[in-house]
């Protein structure tokens, strides 16, 4: 039964339309030559419309271009599911329209679904690189989609090639116009409908049926087409290359013809080699570009091989492709059938010996019995030209060197193969044969991960694999002069002393740049600028609170605009995995917008005071604030502290950590771009004993907000007492407990517990570095925790597959390694990891300790590295007591399905943040800070905003009314 023909029109801008000319053409069934349908025939006018639609869809503000790369991947995965749903129909339509044996078509569709899913998974992994360029610049590349792509399909594998080309282009972010082969237009239209059903926006994919001289030529010459990918003949490929040169130098990928050699050595297993060699040239009736149409058989087994090859060829059943017993179907049309029969006649005329087959079968349809020729020489036409039919030409050779020379004596170079048990022969052949794909003891083995394409006239570029994906992108190199000066009063200035210091990349320890080193004199200038900006008559103080919010909103837009650059710079300077840095910045943009919305909501109260007075409070900005940042999350901390202070109306002097000064300077520039008045934000880069101490002791600084170590936090508190009693917010260290109860879901708890201590290489103040696991599940949990930790990939933070990057510097790396040694010495059992990875950079493999007791150093002190210490407990009461037995109190967590346990723990644990069945969940609305020695005050939330204000109480004596 013939499959239903659902679509015959053109697909342009997500609509089914007739050709502008109204013309149609017939498409045929090669089984019997019958007409299947009349299909719209596109030409230049239709191509122009399709390209225009694709160009609109590629506009930088379009839905497609604004879409997250991961969302593109989701659409492709949905498309793969729809293909799988309709697999039977697609296979039947493919077989009906191009004669492929139905069983093969079904297999092809399965492979095509895998290809779609591969490229779906690649969509958000098209990354640029950070580059250690000469000079003091931050240099990186962006890989951006190339634009509108013309994709021209062949007739021999229309579904597979549609999927390969289209999904690669879409994964890269391009838009496309597809021209199917005129012989096989039907499946491309069905696939277009499925992509629309999957949610592809309008104009992203367009399909124009037609002929090469009309639609094809118009597409290849179109000046708005940035790239053409073509699979087909060498002759047409050359025309496309010429069209590129004659138009706009569009990028070209060509997958063209072949005359692929297959070498059978004397030591080959004939029971394996004979079937492979037959399939290599007879599969799909020989209508494959990589057909092994030159079969070189070594002289020692030549006669025996030929005998077996003839027997195998004679066993091949040729017939109706819908018949499940059929092995070979028809040629695509009468023209191709006659061309193949002509080559067979030419072979006989030139002296090759036809041992079997080579005749047309029947008079209906275009069937040829597989042919086997022997006594073939290199100069014969059938040994030189691509036949594209079921013709096996067997040539004799003596030595491997001879075979390689003869194999390479062609203008083609698409594929090659060898059957041998000698590894050296296999390696020599693989090295020296001139072909884009080489198979050893196999043939026709394809996967979507493997690049496929040809040497010489077999093509340009590659299909499949990352090579093909990158070919749909352009590389943009960006070089940014790194801000190296201080930012004071909206100007870039050198340190008064002229001193500078180096900042490094923890990936390899290389110097990134030299940065101005501020000391007391520079801090004095910065504080003076901030004090002027805070004067009651300054532009900043007279500005409406809502206007302050508008500036912060504008700043958030600029951070979002430069998100990629900021993430790459953060990753480059502090080793955060790039994917995590991007996520950080996305969330911190939300933090900026939260505080922007708060700027005009800092209100006082009216008070029903005793007596005949009208009493109220004002909340007024505290004044000049010193904000001292940590190195582990410099962008997030800058935005959190600075935007809170600005929303309250304060002015600020920022001192970044000496390890990570660069992002603060970039953010200062963005604030200036957003319209912040001069002097409101100042950035002084330098060291704690110089710039930091000067700030914390300065009598014109009204408040200090610091994130960092407990030791430095105590010094800042002392500085406040020794100077002007400045207000202090301290977000300090932690030794956070995470409790895993017997009733916890280990599939959830194990990954959360790992992330809670290994995220950012353990360099987070709320790391769950004391993991208390209840005794009933302890052993099972430990086993799963070790397995999870061992799966974590440690490496270059720019690599999209990396999960953990380096420690910040050599000092911290050695400190962490010292704690690991201390743990082993004190009796804890190291189950995995805990060693340095490589010799370049500061990498540590995540460590898991069991048998940890409360008195061990690793259970008491903050490690700030990827070390998971697992302790056993019996009851919740015990766990709470042990969790609280520390001077720290920053965060805590519990995994349990018992609500009462969760509430009891949340109530009694001494920590500023408690997570239940989650960990590391932050929102700008949530106050964050510690109990005990983990700090004073809160970051984020309204609590933090109010901490940047002073409360003024006003009492007005009400006049008595007489």
Automatic annotation (TrEMBL):
Statement: the UniProt record of this protein carries the keyword Oxidoreductase: yes
Organism classification: Eukaryota, Metazoa, Ecdysozoa, Arthropoda, Hexapoda
Family (UniProt): Belongs to the aldehyde dehydrogenase family.
Keyword Oxidoreductase in annotation: yes
PROSITE patterns, alphabetized: ALDEHYDE_DEHYDR_CYS (PS00070), ALDEHYDE_DEHYDR_GLU (PS00687)
Range of residues in the leader sequence: none
Membrane-spanning residues: none
Keyword vocabulary terms for this entry: Oxidoreductase
UniProt organism field: Spodoptera frugiperda
Pfam families: Aldedh
Active-site residues per Swiss-Prot or TrEMBL entry: 255, 731
Entry protein name: SFRICE_015281
Sequence ranges assigned to domain Aldehyde dehydrogenase in this UniProt record: 16-478, 492-954
GO molecular function: oxidoreductase activity, acting on the aldehyde or oxo group of donors, NAD or NADP as acceptor
């Amino acid at each position: 039964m013939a499959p239903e023909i659902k679509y015959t029109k053109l697909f342009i801008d997500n609509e089914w339309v007739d050709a502008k000319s109204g013309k149609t053409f017939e498409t045929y069934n090669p089984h019997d030559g019958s007409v299947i349908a009349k299909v719209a025939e596109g030409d230049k006018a239709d191509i122009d419309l399709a390209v225009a639609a694709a160009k609109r869809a590629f506009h930088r503000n379009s839905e497609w271009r604004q879409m997250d790369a991961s969302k593109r991947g989701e659409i492709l995965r949905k498309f793969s599911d729809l293909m799988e749903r309709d697999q039977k129909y697609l296979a039947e339509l493919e077989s009906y329209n191009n004669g492929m044996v139905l069983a093969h078509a079904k297999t092809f569709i399965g492979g095509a679904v895998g290809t779609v899913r591969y490229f779906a998974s690649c969509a958000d992994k098209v990354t640029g690189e950070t580059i250690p360029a000469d000079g003091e610049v931050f240099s990186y590349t962006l890989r951006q989609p190339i634009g509108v792509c013309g994709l021209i399909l062949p007739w021999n594998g229309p579904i597979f090639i549609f999927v390969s080309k289209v999904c690669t282009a879409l994964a890269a972010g391009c838009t496309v116009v597809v021209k199917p082969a005129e012989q096989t237009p039907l499946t491309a239209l069905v696939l277009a409908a499925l992509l629309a059903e999957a949610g592809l926006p309008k104009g992203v994919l367009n399909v124009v049926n037609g002929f090469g001289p009309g639609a094809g030529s118009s597409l290849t010459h179109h000046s708005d087409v940035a790239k053409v990918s073509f699979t087909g003949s060498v002759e047409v490929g050359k025309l496309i290359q010429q069209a590129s040169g004659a138009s706009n130098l569009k990028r070209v990928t060509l997958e063209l013809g072949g005359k692929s050699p297959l070498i059978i050595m004397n030591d080959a297993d004939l029971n394996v080699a004979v079937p492979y060699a037959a399939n290599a040239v007879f599969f799909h009736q020989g209508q494959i570009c990589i057909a092994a149409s030159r079969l070189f058989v070594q002289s020692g087994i030549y006669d025996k091989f030929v005998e077996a090859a003839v027997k195998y060829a004679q066993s091949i059943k040729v017939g109706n492709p819908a018949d499940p017993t059929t092995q070979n179907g028809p040629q695509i049309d009468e023209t191709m059938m006659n061309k193949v029969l002509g080559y067979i006649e030419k072979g006989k005329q030139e002296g090759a010996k036809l041992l079997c087959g080579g005749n047309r079968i029947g008079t209906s349809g275009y069937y040829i019995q597989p042919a086997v020729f022997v006594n073939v020489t290199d100069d014969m036409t059938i040994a030189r030209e691509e036949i594209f039919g079921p013709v096996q030409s067997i040539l004799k050779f003596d030595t491997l060197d001879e075979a390689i020379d003869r194999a390479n004596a062609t203008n083609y170079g698409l594929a090659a193969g060898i059957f041998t048990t000698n590894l050296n022969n296999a390696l020599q052949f693989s090295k020296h044969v001139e072909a884009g794909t080489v198979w050893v003891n196999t043939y026709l083995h394809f996967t979507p991960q493997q690049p496929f394409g040809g040497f010489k006239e077999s093509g340009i570029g590659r299909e499949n694999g990352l090579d093909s994906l990158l070919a749909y992108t352009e590389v943009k190199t960006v070089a940014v002069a790194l801000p190296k000066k201080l930012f004071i009063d909206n100007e870039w200035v050198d340190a008064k002393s002229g001193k500078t210091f180096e900042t490094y990349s923890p990936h390899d320890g290389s110097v990134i740049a030299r940065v101005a080193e501020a000391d007391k004199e520079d801090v004095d200038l910065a504080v003076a600028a901030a004090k002027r900006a805070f004067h009651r008559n300054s532009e900043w103080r007279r500005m409406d609170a809502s206007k302050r919010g508008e500036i912060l909103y504008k700043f958030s837009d600029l951070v979002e605009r430069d998100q990629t650059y900021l993430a790459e710079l953060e990753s480059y300077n502090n080793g955060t995995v790039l994917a995590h840095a991007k996520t950080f910045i996305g969330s911190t943009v939300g933090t900026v917008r939260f505080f922007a919305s708060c700027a005009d909501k800092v209100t006082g109260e009216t008070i029903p005071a005793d007596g005949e007075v009208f009493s109220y409070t004002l909340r007024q900005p505290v004044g000049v604030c010193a904000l001292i940042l940590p190195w582990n999350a410099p962008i997030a901390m800058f935005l959190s502290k600075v935007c809170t202070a600005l929303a309250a109306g304060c002015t600020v002097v920022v001192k970044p950590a000496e390890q990570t000064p660069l992002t603060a300077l970039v953010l200062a520039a963005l604030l200036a771009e957003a319209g912040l008045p001069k002097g409101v934000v100042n950035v002084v880069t330098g060291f704690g004993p110089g710039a930091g101490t000067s700030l914390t002791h300065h009598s014109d600084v009204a408040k200090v907000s610091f994130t960092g170590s407990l030791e430095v936090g105590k010094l800042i508190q002392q500085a406040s007492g020794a100077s002007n009693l400045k207000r202090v917010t301290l977000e300090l260290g932690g030794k956070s407990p995470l409790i895993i109860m017997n009733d916890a879901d280990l599939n959830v708890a194990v990954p959360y517990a790992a992330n809670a201590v290994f995220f950012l290489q353990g360099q987070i103040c709320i790391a769950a570095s004391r993991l208390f696991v209840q005794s009933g599940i302890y052993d099972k949990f430990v086993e799963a925790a070790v397995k999870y930790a061992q799966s974590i990939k440690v490496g270059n933070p720019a690599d999209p597959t990396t999960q953990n990057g380096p420690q910040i510097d050599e000092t911290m790396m050695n400190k962490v390694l010292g704690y690991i040694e201390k743990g082993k010495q004190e009796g804890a059992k190291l189950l995995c990891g805990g060693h340095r990875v490589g010799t370049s950079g500061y990498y540590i493999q995540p460590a898991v300790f069991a048998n940890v007791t409360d008195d061990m150093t690793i259970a008491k002190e903050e490690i700030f590295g990827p070390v998971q210490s697992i302790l056993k407990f019996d009851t919740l009461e015990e766990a709470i007591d042990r969790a609280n037995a520390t001077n720290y109190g920053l965060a805590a967590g519990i995994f349990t399905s018992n609500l009462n346990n969760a509430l009891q723990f949340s109530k009694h644990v001494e920590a500023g943040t408690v997570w239940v069945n989650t960990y590391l969940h932050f929102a700008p609305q949530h106050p964050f800070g510690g109990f005990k020695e983990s700090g004073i005050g809160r970051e984020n939330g309204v609590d933090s905003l109010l901490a940047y204000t002073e409360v003024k109480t006003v009492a007005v004596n009400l006049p008595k009314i007489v």
